[in-house]
Amino acid sequence: MQSFKTHCAPLLIGSLPIDNHDRAMELILQSTPQIPLWPQLPCYKEEGMVQQFIPGMPGLDVCDDTLFVNGEGEDFDADFLAFYEDYLMATEGGGSLDDSRFCLTTETAKGFFAFLKHTEKIKDSLTGLKAQTTGPFTFATGVVDQNNKAIFYNEQLRDAAIKLLSLKAKWQIRKMKEICPQAIMIFDEPAMAGFGSSAFITITLDDIKACFGEVFDAVHEEGATAGVHVCANTEWSVLFDAGADLISFDAYSYFDKFILYPDHLKRFFHEGGILASGIVPTTPEFIDQEDGDSLTTKWIEQAAELEKIGIPMEQILEQTLITPSCGTGSVSLAYAEKVMNLVKEVSSNIREKYNLC
């Protein structure tokens, strides 16, 4: 595993309810100065989970302002071939990812470039940098073809999607490593909450593991930490078995489901895995109910449950991050700022209590 000692440092999830990327970075650095991340601002349509990472996909077309992959377009075969030529050039031919179809641009990812600008100024004080990419399952089940069918069910298009995301992750990592050697790449996977439901009944465990295996391998090739974030419950064994270095989950609402995998958790911690504990809620009614002390107590109680299944407290403290349960892009700015402050406060409380500072 590509892991490091995190000592319950604070970390955020990408989305924020604000329309200014520089201001977003200022807020991020105030609450998570050790391991900042780049902001995604959903008030801009081009920063949606699919829209932000779909540029470069072969066969890309638009109808009624909706992007899709047109496998029947007259230029599809040529574009599909060009995609794989570009991929091979980037992975085996020594070609640069810069200015390729695999890099992010200011048109869809202004937050990433603001992130590089702001973190370059404080690089000597950083523990690490975190970026995020839409995960392969969420992306390939969210993008459809000309028949409105998810491209996940087309093996060729699924393969192209995974390779697109893998190289977009690699490009981000390379840019982060110019500033800080410790880079974290998180694949956001909200659709994994539906895995096993009737909507995805024909998708197998092996299909999912293969998707994650390829994107995780791409991250590891760059010497970075590969993680996955799921904001609800899922079949957690899939992510453990796929080889994630870091698992980010909603500890506030789903810890009781998460701890039902004791053997996986023990192996995960033993091998150096990092648990990003989403102990700070992002739903307004729960935000209103909690404060730093109550959430610190809740986290300590959960840590005790992890101890009971055989994970030493020393490991829990060394291999945990304190995060929100999800992004804050859908709440008010006032709530988002409260969440960010709570993340920082809970982390500080834990680090002070256990002498981690």
Helix-strand layout with pairing:
Layout: E1 9-10, H1 21-31, E2 60-63, E3 66-69, H2 76-91, H3 110-120, E4 129-134, H4 136-142, H5 155-177, E5 183-188, H6 205-221, E6 225-230, H7 236-241, E7 246-249, H8 251-258, H9 262-270, E8 274-280, H10 284-289, H11 292-308, H12 313-318, E9 320-324, H13 333-353
Parallel strand pairs: 1-9, 4-5, 5-6, 6-7, 7-8, 8-9
Antiparallel strand pairs: 2-3
Summarize the structure.
By secondary structure, the protein is of the alpha/beta class. 44% of the residues lie in helices and 12% in strands. It has helices at residues 21-31, 76-91, 110-120, 136-142, 155-177, 205-221, 236-241, 251-258, 262-270, 284-289, 292-308, 313-318, 333-353, and strands spanning 9-10, 60-63, 66-69, 129-134, 183-188, 225-230, 246-249, 274-280, 320-324.
Walk me through this protein's architecture:
The protein is α/β, with parallel strands linked by helices and 357 residues long. The chain has one domain (9-353): TIM Barrel (Alpha-Beta Barrel). 44% of the residues lie in helices and 12% in strands. It is built from 13 helices and 9 strands. The strands form 2 sheets. It has a 7-stranded parallel sheet with strand order 1-9-8-7-6-5-4. A two-stranded antiparallel sheet has the order 2-3. Helix 1 packs across helix 3 and helix 5 runs parallel beside helix 6. The model has no long low-confidence stretch (mean pLDDT 95).
